[in-house]
Amino acid sequence: MKIPFDKTALIIVDVQNDFCPGGRLAVIDGDAIIPVINSLAAMGFARVVATQDWHPEDHVSFASKHPGKSPFDTISIDSYDPPVDQVLWPDHCVAGTAGAEFHKDLHTKPVDVIIRKGVNPGLDSYSAFFENDHTTPTGLAGYLGTLRIRTVVLTGLAMDVCVYYSAMDALSLGLSVVLVEDGVRGIDTPQGSLREKKEEMISSGVVITTSEEIEKS
Length: 217
Hints:
Layout: E1 2-3, E2 8-13, H1 34-41, E3 47-53, E4 74-77, E5 84-87, E6 113-117, H2 140-146, E7 151-157, H3 159-172, E8 176-185, H4 193-204, E9 207-209, E10 215-216
Parallel strand pairs: 1-10, 2-3, 2-7, 3-6, 7-8, 8-9
Antiparallel strand pairs: 4-5
Helix pairs in contact: 3-4
């Protein structure tokens, strides 16, 4: 498919050590997408953006901070209106640790800006655009808006969590969204969620393609 690169940003979501094999919250074959992303980043998009989970040690999403709870349990954060449902995860991507660093094979030289998310100890942020209250911005929307970016091409981890929420928020902001299927991997927890999220993205207007099909218009 032909894409107007001069009005398009490539977004690389959370290609960090803790989400790759050997990490604390590893996605199966998460590192297999890196050559695809590196190739895309060299193609000449108007901007290349990378996101990082960047959690404080006492982050609300960590199961270890909730006695009696286990990873993948869900709690309600009642301090927000409406309350925010929060899946609990193993401790991961703690700011300044090796797990939070980009994978060593990811080429970061083409990256123009890094968005660090999940920095609020009391609220998670899956999306590259908004925290999980769906109101507090990360700043990415403003950045792309001032540059008159009209399309985002999404890659990264995990397809059914942070990539999914980034895609849906991008659509809500009026952006065209392309997801590169060989440039993402998912966790599929609970089983079947990966298929459901993919179908929802397609029905909402996300275009799913492969890296080989992307051309500069």
